[in-house]
Amino acid sequence: MPSSGSFLRQLSGRSTSWRWGAGTSKYCTAEGGYNCERSLKQMEGLDMYGNENAGLVMRKRVVVVVDQTSHSKHAMMWALTHVANKGDLLTLLHIIPPGDRCSGERASDSHSPYLASSLGSLCKASRPEVEVEALVIQGPKLSTVISQVKKLEVSVLVLGQKRPSTLISCLCGTSSSEDFVQQCISNAECLTVGVRKQSKGMSGYLITTRTQKDFWLLA
């Protein structure tokens, strides 16, 4: 892992990434993951997962936009267990705002350049058969996501959604984070999925795409 100084030099105007090789950690997945994949595929009308028995599985690049929030981590784990297959590339994209110094110990949790690296290690330990990459880019959040989707030829973009506050919605309308997810869903040139974990006491996820809103998946 690069030092803070060398990392910041690389970060200026460019991007930095880490990749993990094959590991030996035990494979863990959520029960019902295959059914969720089929539901998502049928929901969008896309045969994006291929037919493994017929040897038609196509390598996908799955990108998850990550930060320090719990809903971001829920989206990451959902993508890891329900979208990424063996041999696919899972890219954790962490976007740092322009002008943020992110220097060593002074970096906040939300803007730490090593947040994506830490999350990437967690993903690789959970599913070693999936190739994992952590990519950190400094720039405007929405335009950076849209440009990276095109540049990386992304198959699926996954974004975490937090539970909306009724009070804030009544007073201010949609929040900036909700607007960001909707803008990505509307403008990204790939299948884009907003993922929100159900509240405590309820199982499953609510999935939002360009054609479906709050589609409930049990697993």
UniProtKB/TrEMBL annotation:
SUPFAM superfamilies: Adenine nucleotide alpha hydrolases-like. Gene3D superfamilies: HUPs. Residues 58-181 form the UspA domain. It comes from Salix koriyanagi. This is UspA domain-containing protein. Pfam families: Usp. It comes from the Eukaryota. PANTHER family: ADENINE NUCLEOTIDE ALPHA HYDROLASES-LIKE SUPERFAMILY PROTEIN.
